[in-house]
What does this fold into?
Amino acid sequence: MGQNSSQAARRSSTLSVNDARVVPVGTARLDEAWRVLRHLRPGLERRRLADALRRGGRAYRLGYRLRGLEVRGRLVALAGGRPLVTLARGPHLHIDDFVVVPAWRGRGAGRRLLEALEEHARKRGLAAVHLDSFLDALGFYEALGFTALPCRAVRKKLPPPPRAPRRGS
Ligand SMILES: CC(C)(COP(=O)(O)OP(=O)(O)OC[C@H]1O[C@@H](n2cnc3c(N)ncnc32)[C@H](O)[C@@H]1OP(=O)(O)O)[C@@H](O)C(=O)NCCC(=O)NCCS
It folds into this structure.
């Protein structure tokens, strides 16, 4: 561990989630958010996150928002999600990304951020929170009152759309 990171680790070990607050995260914090999110998604491209945070970006237009747990000006956890309304689930918050930086795991940061998201969603009239959990993280969600559903996420990747014909051809 380098001097800077060991100093940072010592500083963070004297702080607690009582020093934390939940904040919206936008393009002004792109690089910091990218560093945190890569603990969850190591292959995440910076430009994809930039597009999700930028007003007018595709994910942003579809309602994706990122919120962070900040301690003394530093992001220690992030959650990204969007409100959805479906026939099966009704109005709910779908969380796409949820991560706590390694130095802050097991200290109540995940609980603090998720409870804040639940409260925010409840105030907006959303009746539930849904997400796809890693098997390793299931116990965390269960500790917060979530129930595992008897369904599996499935996916099929699609080829890109056909190119529009050029004018005049
Ligand atoms: C999973 C994760 C978000 C939990 O955050 P955290 O800050 O470490 O969790 P907290 O300290 O707030 O723990 C809250 C409760 O959940 C429990 N818990 C936390 N992680 C757990 C796990 N992996 N398995 C079982 N229980 C867990 C804690 O014991 C605690 O219980 P208590 O409040 O009854 O004492 C965090 O470990 C993480 O970012 N992991 C890597 C990325 C990841 O898996 N993200 C989730 C993607 S679906």
